């Protein structure tokens, strides 16, 4: 950071922050340098290196940060950016831009080189419990069963169409299922599963909750079971700031390279910053969508290009600062 002309320090939460010697306000660029076990080399670190390069190119207006504990491996991430936003230094920040790999397959599969993030998803996590009647698997005919496993399987199988009909950008996942008593010769009496819904808008999270509840009730009635949907955790989606979305989109357009608007399905420090200052986020493709894996990769040409486009947008924004 000192080499990029910034006055650098570590704060109480181990965020490395460097700012120009000017009084501010500054445009803050950065990401995180913590990672996950067996993670790749780009998740987070790419955005920090880009921030330093851009701070070097645009002296006087741009501050840089490497946030601590974004992933939550060593704490309850993203704790670094949350504590940064609770500190007085946030009052000297005019806005925040984060450059990151997509960590998903959308840009790569569509052969696009840049993604302007519109919003970072909200996540609703539920527990689903279905109660039926455990019984003998040989003597109980289909029409006399109250098979909790069958009701659960029907809900899982229909989830994709149910959610896509409400929001083509939403996703839902059942990642964990148990059947009780759990024997090959007993009709399941209880099915328990997790159900997670992710979407870029609070409206579709709400609609999905209602639709899943109705479908669970309908299927359970048909199968002679009883279903319960219980909320475990909910985080709201957060939109990126429209003026910064526009600046990033204009910079992508000027680059002449193929790009699109995109929602982020993963959480980021930008979601924290966006609750406090103007915030924008730019993605470069992840080859085959791999991330949190040593197979994470983006061609150097696309990394450099992402940095150049972010620099272009940062320059436009920095010109408007007092
Ligand atoms: Zn990251």
Descriptors for this entry?
single chain, 322 residues, alpha+beta, nine-stranded mixed beta sheet, five-stranded antiparallel beta sheet, 8 helices, elongated, binds zinc ion
Q: What is the radius of gyration?
A: 23 Å
Helix content percent band: 25-40%
Q: Total strand count, please?
A: 16
- Oligomer kind: single chain
- What's the shape? elongated
Q: Poorly predicted ranges (pLDDT <50, ≥5 residues)?
A: none
Strand content: 25-35%
Question: Quick recap of the structure?
Answer:
32% of the residues lie in helices and 29% in strands. With 322 residues, it is α+β, with helices and mostly antiparallel strands.
Descriptive overview:
The protein is α+β, with helices and mostly antiparallel strands. The protein contains 8 helices and 16 strands. Strand 3 (about 25-30), helix 1 (about 45-55) and strand 4 form a beta-alpha-beta unit. Helix 1 (about 45-55) packs across helix 8 and helix 4 packs antiparallel against helix 5. The chain is elongated and about 80 Å long. The structure holds zinc ion. The site of zinc ion has 5 residues, from loops.
């Amino acid at each position: 950071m000192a080499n990029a002309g910034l006055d650098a320090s570590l704060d109480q939460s181990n965020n490395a922050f460097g700012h120009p010697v000017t009084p501010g306000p500054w445009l803050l660029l950065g990401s995180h340098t913590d990672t996950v076990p067996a993670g790749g080399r780009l998740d987070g670190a790419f955005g920090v290196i880009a921030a330093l390069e851009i701070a070097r190119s645009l002296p006087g207006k741009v501050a840089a940060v490497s946030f601590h504990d974004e992933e939550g491996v060593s704490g309850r991430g993203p704790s670094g950016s949350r504590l940064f936003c609770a500190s007085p230094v946030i009052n000297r920040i005019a806005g925040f831009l984060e450059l990151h790999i997509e960590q998903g397959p959308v840009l790569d599969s569509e052969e696009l080189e840049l993604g302007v993030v519109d919003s970072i998803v909200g996540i609703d996590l539920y527990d689903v419990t279905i109660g039926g009647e455990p019984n003998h698997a040989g003597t109980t005919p289909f029409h006399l069963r109250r098979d909790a496993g069958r009701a659960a399987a029907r809900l899982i199988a229909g989830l994709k169409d149910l959610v896509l009909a409400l929001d083509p950008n939403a996703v839902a996942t059942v990642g964990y299922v148990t059947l009780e008593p759990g024997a090959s010769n007993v009709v399941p009496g209880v099915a328990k599963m997790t159900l997670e819904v992710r979407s870029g808008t609070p409206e579709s999270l709400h609609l999905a909750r209602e639709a899943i509840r109705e479908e669970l009730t309908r299927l359970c009635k048909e199968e002679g079971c009883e279903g319960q949907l219980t909320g475990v955790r909910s985080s709201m989606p957060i939109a990126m700031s429209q003026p910064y979305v526009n600046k990033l989109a204009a910079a992508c357009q000027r680059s002449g390279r193929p790009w699109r608007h995109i929602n982020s399905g993963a959480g980021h420090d930008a979601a924290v910053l966006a609750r406090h200052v103007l915030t924008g986020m730019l993605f470069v493709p992840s080859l085959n969508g791999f991330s949190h894996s040593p197979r994470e990769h983006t061609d150097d040409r696309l990394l450099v290009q992402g940095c150049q486009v972010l620099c272009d947008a940062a320059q436009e924004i920095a010109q408007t600062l007092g």
